């Protein structure tokens, strides 16, 4: 066996092959040292083999962790996943033993979606630890778990989780067929898998919820959603997702009722503001200043008196600055990041206005746009909403308020048109009488 | 899912302002408009009852699908094309009127043809989506805009400028016999049920229409407000000087608090949304009627991708609308609309009777 394994692999110094011999038998063992736990190898193989308290052949037959390998084509794959291959030289049987030792972060704290009260622990990069968390929070026997792997080279293991009682079979079939039809070389991140699952190259809104919180996953499972865990990424995918899921912070379930409702309303208001405000500024300043009451229109005009160019150039300058500032503070190392925000804040706050580059109203508009964008609880939605203001700005340059209203209408149509794994993405859920059925249910397969 | 029926009803009854209904009624205020306000709910109620009753016997089927079951092919195709043209035209009147309105009130400098092209492209894109999507769009638009409309109406009815005397003077002409044109204008408010001709495809099999009595009552209230509030503001004589009666009426109000002072802007933005949705909905119906004429067409309610035929049909609709604006003017548009309203009423009565008789015949034969 060992010669053949050495032939199968390239000149790899970390591939270890031995032949061991004791009184009554001899075995060949082979493993890739960095992938395996050497202590396990010695505890399970070398020590019992040399001590010979019980015949080692009996070990091989009785302990279920020694799996018999019939197919020699699987050797490479098993070795690369941290298995030790053992060959009994008398009978010629070949066994594998999993001794994998994968480096991952140890029970991390939530960082992206933090909650003040509520579970502070996030999913792990190791599938078993994540599964441990989810099983603990969702201890039902109906939890179905299926294994997949994607990527021709990376062979990233995936787990598909769902509650058999609640899951929508059409969604599950859809997810299964999409997963088995993925053909790429490597998948390492949840966002990458999301793009492959949606199958559209250009999408404006995220239709799969990416989360690191086990409590959110448990809730989603209870609602009949399908969850996909990826090895090596501490984020899970929840599907199908609706737009309103993205606007829902997990803490809305934990805190006092009225304040959380108010917060939800504020979130929706701020998403409207962050999309429309720059466009409305252009439309009002350049087309319809009479829309506002006279005093307000005058004060806007007065604050713009020092600005020498049309309103949309002003908007483009300020939005360029704020977007670069946000981008810089994300990409920079944490220690320099604060410097960037201080410098940028100074420029945006005062100097630009005093220099007569932009009006002071525009500074307020810019900061409202930026702040209300951060209110969105799920990062992927917040990211896509950042883009939405630009097409509106363009249409307001040409058509004023009419352009803004028509643009919003088009966004609405696009949102209503989206489907997340066959389920409507943007739809108000009223009361549905189960005996009566839902609209559009007649012809669904 | 009664609410989806309700949204369609609300959409049409609010859109009457764009279809010159207030102007037609007001110019006939001494010659039968008041009596037609009383007659219209009765006609509307009967039609609503007959149509919903007939359609609920065919769950999951549209008007055209039902005709295909009972009638010869040539008759179905012929009537479908006629209905499609009617639907296209009902939206075209509104969107053309609104493009001119934007030119009057919002952007006096821009060319109304360009504005119309923008509106038409947006509505055509929306109409090319699936039937299910169209219903979601209608739902969200009505829910977002209805509070604003209610607010405007509340402000108007509570306004001290509303002169109740002139309303009473006009109301006393109730004894005059209604004419065909005032009745056809007034029944437009109740015509939202006709959308069921297509949207019945969406309704689930166990669906039952509930609270049907609401619709005539609601329609009557809207009709009374539509007719009497402008009279209260402009007086018995001054009221027929304006074609865009409600835009002018809402301009007589001001909001003392808040950013926006003139109510007319609120009104215009709300009605821009409603116009787009109405155009979308009407064109979608027209498109589906035409698609149903072709052999081998299968009715789909939620296809993941819009087929090419959608774009071709809607492109034709949109081009025809732009040509309509170029070749007509406001006066001609108003004249055509008032004749169209009469034609629409008779078409509706005929189609409702047709489908009602078909459904009864089927009942007897079973």
From TrEMBL, chain A:
Residue intervals passing through the bilayer: 226-244, 264-285, 356-378, 390-414
Record has Transmembrane as a keyword: yes
GO biological process: spore germination
Pfam family, one: GerA
Alphabetical keyword list: Membrane, Transmembrane, Transmembrane helix
Alphabetical list of InterPro entries matching this protein: Spore_Ger, UPF0353/GerABKA_families
One GO cellular component term noted in the UniProt record for this chain: membrane
Domain of life: Bacteria
KW Transmembrane (keyword) present: yes
Family from the record: Belongs to the GerABKA family.
Protein name per UniProt: Spore germination protein
Organism the protein comes from: Paenibacillus paeoniae
């Amino acid at each position: 066996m060992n010669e053949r394994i050495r032939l199968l692999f390239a000149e790899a110094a970390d591939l270890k092959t031995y032949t061991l011999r004791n009184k009554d038998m001899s075995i060949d063992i082979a493993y890739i040292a960095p992938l395996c736990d050497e202590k396990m190898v010695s505890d399970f193989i070398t020590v019992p083999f040399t001590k010979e308290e019980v015949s080692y052949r009996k070990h091989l037959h009785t302990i279920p962790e020694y799996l018999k390998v019939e197919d020699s084509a699987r050797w490479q794959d098993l070795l690369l996943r941290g298995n030790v291959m053992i060959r009994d030289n008398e009978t010629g049987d070949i066994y594998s033993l999993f001794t994998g030792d994968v480096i991952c972060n140890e029970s991390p704290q939530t960082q992206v979606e933090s909650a003040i009260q509520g579970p502070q622990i996030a999913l792990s990069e190791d599938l078993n630890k994540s599964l441990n968390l989810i099983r603990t929070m969702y201890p039902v026997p109906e939890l179905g778990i299926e294994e997949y792997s994607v990527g021709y080279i990376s062979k990233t293991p995936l787990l598909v989780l769902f509650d058999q009682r609640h899951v929508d079979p059409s969604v599950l079939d859809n997810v299964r067929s999409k997963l088995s039809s993925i053909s790429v070389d490597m998948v390492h991140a949840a966002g990458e898998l999301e793009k492959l699952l949606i199958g559209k190259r250009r999408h404006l809104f995220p239709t799969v919820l990416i989360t690191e919180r086990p409590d959110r996953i448990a809730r989603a499972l209870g609602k009949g959603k399908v969850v996909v865990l990826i090895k090596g990424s501490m984020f899970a995918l929840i599907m199908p997702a609706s737009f309103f899921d993205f606007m829902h912070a997990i803490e809305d379930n934990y805190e006092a009722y009225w304040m959380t409702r108010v917060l939800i309303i504020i979130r929706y208001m701020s998403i409207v503001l962050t999309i429309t405000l720059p466009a409305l500024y252009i439309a009002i300043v350049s087309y319809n200043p009479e829309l506002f009451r006279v005093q307000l229109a005058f004060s806007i005009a007065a604050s713009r008196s020092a600005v020498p160019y049309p309103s949309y150039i002003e908007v483009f300058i300020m939005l360029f600055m704020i977007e670069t500032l946000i981008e810089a503070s994300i990409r920079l190392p944490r220690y320099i990041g604060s410097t960037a925000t201080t410098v940028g804040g100074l420029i945006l706050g005062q100097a630009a206005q005093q220099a007569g580059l932009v009006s002071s109203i525009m500074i307020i508009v810019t900061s409202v746009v930026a702040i209300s964008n951060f209110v969105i609880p799920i990062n992927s939605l917040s990211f896509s909403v950042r883009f939405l203001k630009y097409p509106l700005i363009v249409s307001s340059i040409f058509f004023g308020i009419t352009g803004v209203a028509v643009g919003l209408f088009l966004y609405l149509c696009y949102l209503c048109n989206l489907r997340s794994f066959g389920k409507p993405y943007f739809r108000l859920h009223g009361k549905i009488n189960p005996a009566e059925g839902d609209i559009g249910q007649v012809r669904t397969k | 899912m009664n609410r989806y029926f309700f949204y369609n009803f609300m959409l049409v009854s609010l859109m009457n302002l764009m279809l010159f209904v207030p102007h037609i009624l007001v110019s006939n205020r001494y010659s039968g408009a008041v009596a037609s306000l009383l007659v219209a709910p009765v006609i509307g109620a009967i039609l609503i009852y007959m149509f919903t009753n007939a359609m609920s016997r065919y769950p999951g089927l549209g008007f055209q699908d039902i005709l295909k079951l009972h009638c010869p092919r040539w008759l179905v195709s012929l009537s479908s094309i006629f209905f499609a043209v009617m639907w296209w035209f009902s939206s075209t009147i509104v969107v053309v009127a609104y493009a001119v309105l934007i030119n009057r009130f919002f952007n006096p400098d821009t060319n109304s043809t360009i504005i119309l092209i923008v509106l038409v492209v947006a509505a055509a894109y929306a109409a090319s989506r699936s039937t299910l999507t169209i219903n979601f769009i209608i739902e969200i638009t009505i829910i977002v805009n209805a509070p604003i409309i209610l607010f405007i109406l509340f402000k108007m009815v509570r306004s001290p400028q509303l002169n109740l005397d002139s309303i009473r003077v006009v109301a006393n002409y109730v004894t005059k016999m209604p004419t065909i044109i005032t009745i056809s204008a007034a029944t437009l408010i109740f015509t939202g049920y006709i959308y069921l001709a297509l949207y019945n495809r969406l309704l689930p099999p166990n669906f039952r229409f509930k609270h049907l009595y609401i619709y005539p009552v609601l329609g009557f209230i809207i009709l009374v407000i539509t007719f009497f509030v402008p009279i209260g503001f402009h007086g018995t004589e001054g009221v027929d000087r304006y074609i865009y009666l409600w835009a002018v009426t809402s301009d007589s109000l001001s909001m003392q608090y808040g950013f926006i002072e003139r109510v007319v802007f609120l009104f215009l933005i709300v009605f821009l949304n409603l116009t787009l949705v109405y155009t979308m909905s009407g064109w979608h119906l027209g498109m589906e009627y035409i698609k149903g004429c072709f052999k081998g067409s299968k009715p789909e309610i939620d296809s993941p991708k819009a087929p090419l035929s959608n774009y071709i049909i809607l492109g034709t609709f949109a081009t025809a609308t732009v040509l309509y604006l170029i070749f007509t003017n406001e006066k001609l548009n108003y004249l055509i609309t008032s004749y169209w309203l009469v034609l629409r009423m008779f078409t509706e009565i005929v189609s409702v009777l047709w489908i009602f008789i078909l459904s009864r015949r089927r009942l007897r034969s079973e």
